[in-house]
Amino acid sequence: MTELSEFLRSRRAQLTPPDVGLPWNGESRRVNGLRREEVAVLAGVSADYYTRLEQGRARNVSEQVLAAVADALRLTELERKHLYDLARPATGGANAGTKAPKARVAVQMMLAALDPVPAVIHGPRLEVVAINRMGSVLIDDFDAMPPAERNMARWMFVNPKARVVYPDWPEVAAQMVAILRAAVKPRTPDPALTRLVDTLREESAEFARCWSEYKVFQHTHGTKRFHHDAVGEMEINYESLVPPDDPQLSLIIYTAATGSPSEEKLKLLSSWAATVSAR
After folding, report:
1. How does residue 90 score in pLDDT terms, banded at 50, 70 and 90?
2. φ, ψ for residue 96 (rounded to 5)?
3. Using an 8 Å Cβ cutoff, are 97 and 248 in contact?
4. What Å distances lie between residue 227 and 106, 117, 120, 233, 240, CA to CA?
């Protein structure tokens, strides 16, 4: 099954006729979600054409058809962009970003200067390219790990500490998988990403299950709960920034709301870590 087939099937499986304004008398259905014929009706194309599109056999699909299918499947903006990426013919060339990403010295200096604000730099496959002192305290000491293990997705599913650090582990773990899903670009194959996904599917049944759900996610900003044994639970905001000259990298900065209990705990955690380090 192609990526396009898998994606389209997963999206129509999430919808029922009432979700899209179609009649449904509650009869049993052989498939979960919408039938291909129903998506075709909503998109204004023939059932045969939509079937060929879903099977990856349609060629030179127009922008209008893709937009109609996206509307029919109630895709989000990120899902819509992913559909366009998947529907374009492959170039056959390897992704220019297959090499291990590196942060410029100035960016690494900025990361260190942010301390005691926790911060980490991710690569396009969630590689931990760099992390500052408080980032290591809040999440984990990735610098102490073998290079092959310095990956947030791998750590999330393989390292038991992840389930302690993130009280909402199922939600956060699913987001990690969805970020990797969104990184798949058939037009520019990425062998490193394929190897990572294949390895995690073998090592973790939970990763394999999340991968099969085919959700996509972009790590831009939000709030997550963190736990540290020294201070307990904290509610932390995150913002993702892209260095102008390094579009493959993402700088993630973690802060707590001003005057909140979590801000006080984050300060205590920094002091605690400094004391432990001094010892």
Report:
1. low
2. -65, -15
3. yes
4. 31, 16, 17, 4, 21
